[in-house]
């Protein structure tokens, strides 16, 4: 396994979920695989969960870990080809990435969409340079278009909490004061479409995802109708794809509160975190008995550990 960006990179999802169960029950069973191997985590953007869960997963596997906040602690990187580098960026990504590859066995990269150029973001301009130039297996720690470790952890969590073979899972847009990327909703629908769930997505008009993620997705513009009978409510904000990076609405009637949850089948509430309370979700819902945001975050260790295990096995 040389890269982790989509569910296809993991192969059979049933097998991956079995492996997740095993890893969760036996977190230190594979330390021989990771001994004398180094994971390098590169952050172009902030993180709490991804950073800590990746470090924890790697140490569970017996690996060494190096973390670099590249914008704080590294040279500012130029990523465009053919640029005369007479500005404020003293190093080019085409040297920096192969150098990083000399110091690690596996590289994780977090690099968000910057909303300047949609095509560039959706071509994964930064992540693909790591895949092309590092010479190492590369894990997306959330890229411009996807957050696969989160989506895999979300799937593990749904599997753990479902009370019927095919639960109804509703992903709802909710308001937020800042423009957020589409990576989490893109990955969530990408992974859930492959799972044994009834998936419904609801958002205001104008917030439809990119065509490749909308394909085969049940879309219901009326949030109340979408929530009816839901077994899981997955709330998330994202900015517009079609009016790229724009905030089209801050309508707080979309906030997930107790009235919204009352429409559901006693649904579990999920969010990837961090979450803006009383914008995305009310205090009562996120602290209520059906909120599973903490075990969902805990499963980030499990999703990363399965990915690391696969990569380490393929190096043997
Ligand atoms: N959910 C998630 O990826 O959290 P962080 O941004 O804190 O890593």
Give a written overview of the molecule:
- About 40% of the residues lie in helices and about 15% in strands.
- With about 325 residues, it is of the alpha/beta class.
- The protein has two domains: about 5-145 and about 300-315, Aspartate/ornithine carbamoyltransferase (Rossmann fold, 3-Layer(aba) Sandwich), CATH 3.40.50; about 150-295, Rossmann fold (3-Layer(aba) Sandwich), CATH 3.40.50.1370.
- Strand 11 (about 230-235), helix 13 and strand 12 form a beta-alpha-beta unit.
- The site of phosphoric acid mono(formamide)ester has 9 residues, from helix 4.
- It holds the Pfam family OTCace.
- Keywords: Amino-acid biosynthesis, Arginine biosynthesis, Transferase.
CATH architecture of the largest domain: 3-Layer(aba) Sandwich
The strand order across the widest sheet is: 1-7-6-2-3
Give the count of helical stretches: 15
**Helix proportion:** 25-40%
Query: How confident overall, as mean pLDDT?
Result: 98
Q: What is the name of the CATH class of the largest domain?
A: Alpha Beta
The CATH homologous superfamily of the largest domain corresponds to Aspartate/ornithine carbamoyltransferase
